[in-house]
C-alpha cells in the first residue's frame, strides 16, 4: 500500500474541496462578484450634512478663541493656583518628584509579592525642594491631601500632587548643608489595600 499521493490524487482532492463559481447558491458570493473593490481614492465628502453640524470632538467655543479650556472644565484648585502664581512676586524653587516603594527581601529575590517596577506599586511620594540661601526657621510648609504649599521670604511653591496623600503619615526633613527640603508623603489611592 502506497502512502503518498500522486498528482492525479491531489488534483482530484482539489476539485472535490474547491467549489466552482457556477455551483454557488450563496447570495454573498454573488454580491462579491458584482461589487467593485474600494480603494482610498473612493472616499468622498458626505453630501447632505448640514453646515452647523457639530462633530463629536468639535472644539468648545469660549469667550476667547485662544482659550484651551472651557470654563466648565477648569477646577477651582487650578484657578486658585494660576492666580497665586501670577500675583506672587516670589520665585518658584527648583523641585524634583520621585516615587518610592517599600521593598522587602521576598519582593526582590523571591518575587512573592504583587509589586512591579511601575508607579502603581509605590507607597511613597518623595519631593525634594531646593531653597538656596534659606534657613529652616523661615520656611512654612503646608501639606493638604491634594497639594503641597511651601513659603519662605524668597520662594513660593504651590504644587498639586499627582495622587492624594495622607498629611498625617508624611514627614519632612531639612538638609541644611544643601539647603534642600525633603518631603516624604504617604500616597492614598483607591486600590492600595488590594495592591499591598
TrEMBL record:
A single GO molecular function term of this UniProt record: dynein intermediate chain binding
Which InterPro entries has this protein been placed in?
DNAAF6, PIH1D1/2/3_CS-like
Q: Which residue stretches does the UniProt record annotate as biased composition, category Basic and acidic residues? A: 29-40
Q: Which GO terms describe its cellular component?
A: cytoplasm
PIH1D1/2/3 CS-like domain location is 93-186
Q: Which GO terms describe its biological process?
A: axonemal dynein complex assembly
A Pfam family assignment: PIH1_CS
Q: Where is this region: Disordered?
A: 17-69
- What family name appears in the similarity comment? Belongs to the PIH1 family.
Tell me what this protein is called. Answer: PIH1D1/2/3 CS-like domain-containing protein
Question: Which organism is this protein's natural source?
Answer: Odynerus spinipes
Amino acid at each position: 500500500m502506497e502512502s503518498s499521493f500522486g498528482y492525479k490524487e491531489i488534483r482530484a482532492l482539489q476539485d472535490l474541496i474547491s467549489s466552482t463559481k457556477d455551483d454557488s447558491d450563496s447570495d454573498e458570493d454573488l454580491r462579491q462578484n458584482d461589487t467593485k473593490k474600494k480603494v482610498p481614492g473612493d472616499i468622498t465628502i458626505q453630501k447632505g450634512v448640514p453646515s452647523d453640524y457639530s462633530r463629536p470632538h468639535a472644539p468648545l467655543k469660549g469667550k476667547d478663541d485662544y482659550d484651551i479650556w472651557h470654563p466648565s472644565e477648569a477646577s477651582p484648585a487650578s484657578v486658585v493656583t494660576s492666580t497665586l502664581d501670577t500675583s506672587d512676586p516670589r520665585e518658584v524653587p527648583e523641585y524634583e518628584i520621585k516615587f518610592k516603594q517599600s521593598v522587602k527581601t521576598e519582593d526582590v529575590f523571591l518575587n512573592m509579592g504583587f509589586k512591579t517596577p511601575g508607579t502603581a506599586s509605590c507607597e511613597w511620594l518623595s519631593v525634594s525642594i531646593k531653597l538656596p540661601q534659606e534657613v529652616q526657621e523661615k520656611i512654612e510648609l503646608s501639606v493638604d491631601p491634594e497639594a503641597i504649599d511651601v513659603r519662605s521670604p524668597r520662594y513660593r511653591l504651590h504644587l498639586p500632587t499627582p495622587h492624594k496623600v495622607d498629611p498625617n503619615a508624611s514627614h519632612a526633613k531639612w538638609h541644611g548643608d544643601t539647603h534642600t527640603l525633603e518631603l516624604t508623603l504617604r500616597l492614598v489611592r483607591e486600590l492600595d489595600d488590594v495592591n499591598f
